[in-house]
């Protein structure tokens, strides 16, 4: 059974940092593209970072480029999202998701398994 469990969210002041983790089971994170997706209050889901399994290519949403870093630890079968210089507009529920493919297509419709999410709130 495929499971994804996020952790590491919380309340952080503007300019602060958080590291999110996503523990995977039922598959290996280096076999499929993996993505972080967020949903801010009243807004649609948006992907923010993805890592391919076929070539390790990493892609970021422009608004997080240079501030967020996606990575994976194959020995721990875990996906990470290091978030620095956090802004109030980063406040959202953050989800990790597994793709059906080895590369990220840019579409959320190819994400076939999602975790339950972890809340990140950026506020003073």
Please give a handful of descriptors for the protein shown:
single chain; 124 residues; mainly beta; 49% strand
- Counting DSSP E segments of at least 2 residues, the number of strands comes to 11
Question: Based on helices, strands and strand pairing, what is the structural class?
Answer: mainly beta
- Structural shape: globular
Using only C-alpha atoms, the radius of gyration works out to 13 Å
User: What integer is the average pLDDT?
Assistant: 97
What is the number of helices?
Answer: 0
As a percent range, the share of helical residues equals under 10%
Low-confidence stretches: none
Terminal CA distance reads: 40 Å
- Main β-sheet description: 7 strands, mixed
Strand content: over 45%
- List the helices and strands in order: EEEEEEEEEEE
């Amino acid at each position: 059974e495929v499971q994804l469990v996020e952790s590491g969210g919380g309340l952080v002041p503007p300019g602060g940092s958080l590291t999110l983790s996503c523990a995977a089971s039922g598959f290996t994170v280096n076999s499929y593209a993996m993505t972080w997706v967020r949903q801010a209050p009243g807004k649609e889901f948006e992907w923010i970072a993805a890592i391919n399994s076929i070539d390790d290519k990493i892609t970021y949403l422009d608004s997080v480029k240079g501030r967020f870093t996606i990575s994976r630890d194959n020995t721990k079968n875990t996906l990470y999202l290091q978030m620095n210089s956090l802004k109030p507009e980063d406040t959202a529920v953050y989800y990790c998701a597994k793709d059906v493919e080895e590369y990220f297509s840019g579409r959320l419709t190819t994400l076939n398994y999602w975790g339950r999410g972890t809340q990140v709130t950026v506020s003073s």
